[in-house]
């Protein structure tokens, strides 16, 4: 993936109808959401490195415009689901930092009571369906959300995110075929950060043009989006979502973006498969937060003072979430067997008939 | 009471649930216009139409995952695997998603799906089409596994499975589809059999034969032979549901007869019978007058040759032979 100057800023997507409709407050909210995601993850990184968070930590830093821009378009009937790099989607969907950080810390106050961890954040009440750990395993589930919308006659779209490493999994291709065949209102969003773990796009995918173009083989619409411009993200995703809502047709979107850290923080080779220049180029020239902050300052929507205040407030919110997580109780051993079966949890006759659990 | 085939009983169960709940959808390969590869869903597409009976491409990971996702929004998919043997191409969806999504979300999500189809050997289709995975899936907490042996059980358990709010993997048998048995008439009331309740299909006093699925039919035939030719009287206990498991029914039979032969089409290593044997030795150790014996499929991939296939599987002759080693 390259970020040559000619790739970007060919059109000013601020003038698209969906962006013209944004109030100053809306724009500041978009910026705030991106900054909150970054500050949350910077805090998570600090405490992961301090050994307070277990397992893996897949950071979204650098990609914030994707979740923020796309989810900002969602209404009551729109749903979203993603893979394991899910903190941004969780916060953009309206989850609060406390429940997310506590989940990362493995605490009982976490969004999944400490049963899911960093890769498995969920908030069905906010139309956010995870947080899934297996590459492309969520792609048929996203299709199912679209199926449910259509079955119930609801005019919504299901946004299903994945990384560029997911596009070679069979489940994804099966999903594309079914999406087009059954005419389902799903929008597949490839967040292309250029690397499937440590393997670059060129070393992992055979394609013509771009990854999204494979959609043509399934008779689906597709588009390519510059993720460093949240206006473009919104403008083009809006078109795909309207196609889903009004025509019940699927779309594949490929949003070029970049992650500053490794595949996960545990990625030992994170600095070997990419050059420092490549990372610096993105940070300096294409960072979605910097780009949008500059834009809003230019538009006169934002002052430097307000920008600083947003940063400070996000930092404090993240720090407070660490305190909340740290002070929260751990789950009890007794709780391990809760949330396995709905019928057992709800003490129904079915849940109380026969032996459900087999321990020593 | 009416007599129905196992196939008709399954169909009637699904038909009644389609009528009861508008969120129930049947999907799978050839389930609609083709009327079902094994004709289990015959006539349902004509009756219910495209919305409720959905043909899918040969794409198990895709459509099963789709059903799981749809169930999160309140649809209740009943998905046919033409053979349960094809579970392997959808394994991630069946296990990482269906079994785990409730847990990983801390109970925020549930997954009310049924995955159904035949899971058996004995039809000369070789190893790829003869997997018997009830023990495999019963090993995953979050899943429920059902394996009916008779038409009445097939109907009653299917209706309970569809109403259940957890994922239920329903294992049928191509060699049972044409078998017949009494099934209560719908006019007699809603016929639902609770999951997790075993059924004593034959009462005896000398030895307990414990099985599920088609092995129950073999046990009933073996019990008849044992009574007639050897004067040995057997309980035949049909587990019906593998998970949740009716362990009290197992213990009650063992405490009565003190001798047990477990019959299980799945393999001996880690199969259903291995779990049942563990429970018996744990809870009924002092009740046993002989070692627990098993009849399982001979430990190799399923052989094709129709000449010896039936000998690889549990059958009445092998059951009788095993019983005589301890009775």
Describe this protein's structure:
- The complex is a heterodimer of chains A (360) and B (327).
- Chain A has 360 residues and is α/β, with parallel strands linked by helices.
- Chain A has helices at residues 17-20, 24-49, 64-71, 87-92, 97-104, 139-151, 170-181, 201-204, 230-247, 276-285, 288-299, 304-327, 342-345; strands at residues 79-81, 158-163, 186-192, 195-196, 199-200, 221-226, 251-256.
- Chain A has a five-stranded parallel sheet with strand order 1-2-3-7-6, with helices on both faces.
- Chain A starts with 16 loop residues before the first helix and ends in a 15-residue tail after the last helix.
- Chain B contains twelve helices and 14 strands.
- Chain B has helices at 6-20, 44-48, 60-72, 91-99, 101-104, 134-138, 151-163, 214-230, 247-257, 272-283, 309-312, 316-324, and strands at residues 2-5, 24-28, 53-55, 76-80, 114-118, 144-146, 168-172, 180-183, 199-202, 207-211, 234-238, 241-243, 260-264, 293-296.
- In chain B, strands 3-2-4-5-7-6-12 form a seven-stranded mixed sheet, sandwiched between helices. In chain B, strands 9-11-10-13-14 form a five-stranded mixed sheet, with helices on both faces. A two-stranded antiparallel ribbon of chain B has the order 1-8.
- In chain B, α1 (6-20) packs parallel to α7 (151-163) and α9 (247-257) packs across α10 (272-283).
- The longest helix of chain B is centred in the last third of the chain and has 17 residues, at 214-230.
- The radius of gyration of chain B is 19 Å and the shape is globular.
- The model of chain B has no long low-confidence stretch (mean pLDDT 97).
- Classes of the chains: A alpha/beta (360), B alpha/beta (327).
- Chains A and B meet through α6, α7 and α13 of A and α3, α4 and α5 of B.
């Amino acid at each position: 993936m390259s970020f040559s100057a000619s790739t970007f800023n060919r059109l000013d997507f601020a003038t698209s109808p969906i962006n013209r409709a944004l109030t100053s407050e809306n724009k500041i909210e978009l910026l705030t959401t991106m900054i909150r995601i970054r500050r949350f993850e910077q805090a998570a990184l600090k405490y992961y490195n301090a050994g307070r968070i277990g397992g893996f930590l897949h950071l979204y830093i650098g990609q914030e415009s994707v979740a923020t821009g796309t989810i900002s378009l969602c209404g009551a009937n729109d749903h979203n689901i993603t893979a394991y790099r899910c903190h941004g989607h969780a916060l953009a969907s309206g989850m609060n930092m406390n429940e997310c950080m506590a989940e990362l810390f493995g605490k009982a106050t976490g969004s999944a009571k400490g049963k899911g961890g960093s890769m498995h954040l969920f908030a069905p009440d906010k139309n956010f369906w995870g947080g899934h750990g297996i590459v492309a395993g969520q792609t048929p589930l996203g299709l199912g959300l679209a199926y449910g919308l259509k079955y119930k006659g609801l005019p919504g779209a299901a946004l299903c995110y994945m990384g560029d490493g997911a596009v070679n999994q069979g489940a994804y291709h099966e999903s594309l075929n079914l999406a087009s065949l059954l005419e389902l209102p799903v929008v597949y969003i490839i967040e292309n950060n250029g690397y499937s773990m440590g393997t670059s796009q060129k070393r992992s995918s055979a394609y013509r043009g771009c990854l999204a173009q494979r959609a043509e083989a399934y008779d689906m619409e597709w588009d390519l989006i510059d993720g460093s411009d949240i206006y473009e993200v919104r403008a083009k995703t809006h078109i795909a979502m309207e196609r889903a809502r009004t025509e019940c047709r699927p779309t594949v979107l490929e949003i070029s973006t970049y992650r500053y850290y490794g595949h996960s923080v545990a990625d030992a080779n994170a600095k070997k498969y990419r050059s420092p220049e490549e990372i610096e180029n993105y940070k300096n020239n294409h960072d979605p937060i910097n780009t949008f902050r500059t834009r809003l300052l230019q538009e006169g929507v934002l002052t430097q003072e307000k920008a600083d205040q947003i940063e400070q407030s996000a930092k404090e919110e993240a720090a407070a979430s660490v305190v909340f997580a740290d002070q929260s109780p751990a789950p009890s051993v007794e709780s391990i067997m809760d949330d396995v079966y709905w019928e057992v949890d709800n003490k129904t006759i079915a849940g109380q008939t026969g032996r459900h659990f087999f321990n020593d | 009471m009416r007599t129905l085939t196992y196939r008709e009983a399954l169909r009637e169960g699904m038909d009644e649930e389609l009528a009861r709940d508008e969120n129930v959808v049947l999907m799978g390969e050839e389930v609609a216009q083709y009327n079902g590869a094994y004709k289990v869903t015959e006539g349902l597409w004509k009756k219910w139409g495209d919305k409720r009976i959905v043909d899918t491409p040969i794409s198990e990971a895709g459509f099963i995952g789709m059903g799981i996702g749809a169930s999160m929004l309140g649809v209740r998919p009943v998905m046919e695997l033409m053979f349960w043997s094809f579970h392997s191409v959808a394994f991630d969806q069946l296990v990482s998603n269906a079994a785990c999504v409730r847990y990983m979300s801390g109970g925020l999500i549930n997954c009310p799906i049924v995955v159904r189809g035949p899971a058996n050997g004995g039809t000369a289709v070789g190893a790829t089409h003869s997997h018997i995975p009830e023990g495999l899936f019963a090993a995953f907490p979050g899943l429920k596994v059902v394996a009916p042996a008779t038409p009445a059980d097939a109907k009653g358990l299917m209706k309970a499975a569809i109403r259940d709010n957890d994922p239920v993997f329903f294992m049928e048998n191509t060699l049972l589809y044409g078998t017949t048995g009494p099934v209560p008439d719908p006019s007699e009331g809603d016929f639902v059999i609770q999951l997790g309740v075993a059924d004593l299909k034959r009462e005896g006093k000398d030895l307990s034969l414990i099985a599920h699925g088609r092995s129950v039919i073999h046990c009933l035939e073996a019990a008849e032979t044992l009574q007639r030719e050897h004067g040995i009287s057997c309980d035949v206990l049909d587990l019906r549901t593998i998970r949740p498991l009716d362990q009290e029914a197992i213990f009650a039979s063992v405490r009565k007869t003190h001798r047990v032969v477990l019959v299980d089409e799945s393999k001996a290593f880690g199969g259903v019978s291995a779990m049942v044997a563990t429970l018996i030795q744990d809870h009924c150790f002092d009740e046993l007058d002989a070692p627990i014996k098993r009849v399982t499929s001979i430990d190799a991939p399923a052989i094709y040759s129709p000449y010896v296939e039936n000998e690889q599987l549990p059958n009445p002759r092998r059951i009788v032979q095993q019983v005589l080693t301890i009775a």
